[in-house]
Amino acid sequence: MSAHEEHDRIDGETDRAVILAGGRGTRLAPYTSILPKPLMPIGERSILEIVVDQLARQGFNDIVFCVGYLSHLIRAAFHYRGNDAATISYVQEEDALGTAGPLRLVEDLDTTFLAMNGDVLTTLDYRDLVRHHRASGNLLTVATHVRSIKIDYGVLYLDGPDGRSGHVQAWEEKPEITSLVSMGIYVIEPEVLEHIPPGVRFDIPDLIQCLLATGSQVGAYAYDGMWFDIGRHDDYAQAVSAWETVTDRPPVVIEPALT
């Protein structure tokens, strides 16, 4: 078997995805007093339906929803879909466990898997993310995106020792701060789960801090295409408008995994 064939075979074995869909989505209230955030509509479909269709087209046919708030609506929405290319199962959070805690409840996470927030809308190639993760040897890989934040004030730079007093050295009017941020999408090796305490709230940043403290390799995958983390009203409005330009994209062609 060639190196290329072996690479495809290994990648093809990664067919599990965990979608974290248990949050309350308070920043999108009052919408989320009626619907869980992953069921917010984008055109004629919900965010979660779009995500599941994307994953299924890219070969992730074993999908787990970690649900909590208004979970009966998510179950109902997918119970009546029918003809799905992916098998969907559920893990119910009785108490809010954060973004990492629910992973401890998922059975048989014994191979590399994809984990992502249920309110992420993107054109990311999930398969390419997995390939990058495999090639880098990371225990956990974070998909990242450049995000700029505009500060609507004049920023002063002072020469005092604490930076808050002294003489003005420079003035920058309404600057933009550019940072590399998490997209809320991760590829994770199963041994990482040992760092998640059971039954308590634990978030992905907590998990990454634990991994770094033990010297484990955590990597990043940069993506500069379309991405919306739909947490606020402005983000949601932009996502609804922008997604209209990509709904007619040709489907992803899935090549069968080699055996």
Q: What's the mean pLDDT score?
A: 85
Number of helices: 6
CATH architecture: Alpha-Beta Complex
Structural class: alpha/beta
| Biggest pleated sheet | 7 strands, mixed
Q: What ranges have pLDDT less than 50 throughout 5 or more consecutive residues?
A: 1-12, 248-259
Q: What is the succession of H and E elements?
A: HEEEHEHEEEHEEEEHEEH
Q: What is the overall silhouette?
A: globular
Helix residue percentage: 10-25%
Rg from C-alpha positions?
20 Å
Strand segment count = 13
What do we call the CATH topology?
Spore Coat Polysaccharide Biosynthesis Protein SpsA, Chain A
Q: How far from one another are the termini?
A: 10 Å
Strand order of the largest sheet: 5-4-1-6-11-8-12
Give the CATH H-level superfamily: Spore Coat Polysaccharide Biosynthesis Protein SpsA, Chain A
Beta content comes to: 25-35%
The count of domains is 1
**CATH class call:** Alpha Beta
What does this molecule look like?
The protein has a single domain, classed as Spore Coat Polysaccharide Biosynthesis Protein SpsA, Chain A (Alpha-Beta Complex). Helices cover 24% and strands 28% of the residues. The chain is built from six helices and 13 strands. The protein has helices spanning 3-12, 47-57, 71-79, 126-136, 204-213, 233-243; strands at residues 16-21, 41-42, 45-46, 62-67, 87-92, 113-117, 120-122, 140-150, 154-158, 168-173, 176-188, 218-222, 227-229. The strands form four sheets. The chain has a seven-stranded mixed β-sheet. A two-stranded antiparallel sheet has the order 2-3. Strand 4 (62-67), helix 3 (71-79) and strand 5 (87-92) form a beta-alpha-beta unit. The longest helix is centred in the N-terminal third of the chain and has 11 residues, at 47-57. Mean pLDDT is 85; it is low at 1-12 and 248-259.
